[in-house]
């Protein structure tokens, strides 16, 4: 099949769909860049914060590298490199995984927990400033509904609106 043919077979976005897509991208960029900038001001990256907060919620403040990588949507090697940098800063430590001789556990250190405790109020305020306080309760409910719909595997054309 030629490239020309596959391009013509594409289901192009109509004006409303393209407008919605671009608006979604603008929102993602604005919120993520704002919260990332605010975290950077207190010495953390978004991935640092996600790793710290996830580990703080786990029993014994511990997770496997694989579970954490899956949660973040990262490869194990990418998270391993990031964990090495966090370990050098004393935020976490690695331990052998007793169930997987090739794997390791990520364990939140006392310094990592203190860092998270100090960062959490500023991060929550940042999330409020860049996202929560700009929306109505109805907007927030709509986002929850949309997120659930996008997280479910697609089952053919299951759009909630009739085709144009």
Please explain how this structure is put together.
It is a single chain. The protein is mainly alpha-helical. It has a single domain (22-147), classed as Arc Repressor Mutant, subunit A (Orthogonal Bundle). It contains 7 helices and 3 strands. Strand 2 (92-97) and strand 3 (100-108) form a beta hairpin. The longest helix is centred in the N-terminal third of the chain and has 27 residues, at 15-41. GO terms for molecular function: DNA-binding transcription factor activity. InterPro entries: HTH_MarR-typ, MarR/SlyA-like, WH-like_DNA-bd_sf, WH_DNA-bd_sf. Residues 60-80 are annotated as: Disordered. Residues 17-152 form the HTH marR-type domain.
Summed up:
The chain is mainly alpha-helical and 164 residues long. It has one domain: Winged helix-like DNA-binding domain superfamily/Winged helix DNA-binding domain (Arc Repressor Mutant, subunit A, Orthogonal Bundle), CATH 1.10.10.
How are the elements arranged and paired?
Layout: H1 3-8, H2 15-41, H3 46-57, E1 62-64, H4 65-72, H5 76-88, E2 92-97, E3 100-108, H6 110-130, H7 137-151
Antiparallel strand pairs: 1-3, 2-3
Helix pairs in contact: 2-6, 3-6, 4-5
Count of folded domains: 1
- Determine the structural class based on helices, strands and strand pairing: mainly alpha
Strand-and-helix sequence, N→C?
A: HHHEHHEEHH
What is the CATH architecture term?
Orthogonal Bundle
Give the integer mean of the pLDDT values: 90
The beta-strand count equals: 3
State the name of the first-level CATH class.
Mainly Alpha
Tally of separate helices: 7
Portion in helices: 55-70%
- Poorly predicted runs of 5 or more residues: none
Distance between the termini: 29 Å
Domain HTH marR-type: 17-152
Protein name: MarR family transcriptional regulator
InterPro entries: HTH_MarR-typ (IPR000835), MarR/SlyA-like (IPR039422), WH-like_DNA-bd_sf (IPR036388), WH_DNA-bd_sf (IPR036390)
Organism: Micromonospora rosaria
